[in-house]
Amino acid sequence: MFRNTFQSGFLSILYSIGSKPLQIWDSKVKNGHIKRITDQDIQSSVLEIMGTNVSTSYIVAPANPKHTLGIKLPFLVMIIKNLNKYFTFEVQVLDDKGVKRRFRASNYQSSTRVKPFICTMPMRLDEGWNQIQFNLSDFTRRAYGTNYVETLRVQIHANCRIRRIYFSDRLYTEEELPAEFKLFLPMAANPPPPSATTTATTTTATVADPEKKKKKKEESDTNEKVKFSTTKKTDKSVAEVKDREEKIEEKENSAENVAVAVDLVEPLEQELTA
């Protein structure tokens, strides 16, 4: 889809405020729902995926199983809300050996396992909104000893709320991020004094070390850790946030129309309604 598109900086594949957030996605639901709702913490629209079984309620991009994303940017960033329920996501990549590898992270697994075509790992999320930063290049190198080429598919399962999913060429600080890629929270009823600052906490997840893997059995655990950082909470008035979102949506819709017209071979048959 994006293989012939110039890729630099940021490449968004889902934004909950856009007119058609699932335009390039397919959705599967059984005993659950996928819908856009208003999150009370940020007073804005988000995409909620819920299901009694995480394996049967999910969204996947691209929608057509015969197509691939073709995204070469090495960092996957997801702004996700922890609902204190089982949650998992999966990314399929292509390495320089021409092999398709899958990385699956979940909050209900306790150990890391590396198999020839899939690496599964535990993930710990903080309360509320989290920013998951996934270094695909580093994961591919350490788990399989090969080089990351591109991302083929992304699959997000229940249970979570999604603000945005995007790729980037590197990790950006909060100050470097464009406004539309930040998560703004409404002004608190009793705001802290001007001297007080809000800091972001950090969560960790284990990942396999390929060098240790070779010395042990194929399935073993390591103590290597990779950081998943949570979003920094920023105090903004609700009116300012909504005004910014309206401008962002107009800009997003315009950009989406151009990108989809060039790269989308087959339009998504299902549209998400608010």
TrEMBL record:
Residues 196-208 have a biased composition (Low complexity). Residues 190-255 are annotated as: Disordered. Residues 1-184 form the CFA20 domain. InterPro entries: CFA20/CFAP20DC, CFA20_dom. It comes from the Eukaryota. Pfam families: CFA20_dom. Coiled coil: none annotated. Residues 209-254 have a biased composition (Basic and acidic residues). PANTHER family: ORF PROTEIN. This is CFAP20 family protein. It comes from Skeletonema marinoi. The lineage of its organism: Eukaryota, Sar, Stramenopiles, Ochrophyta, Bacillariophyta.
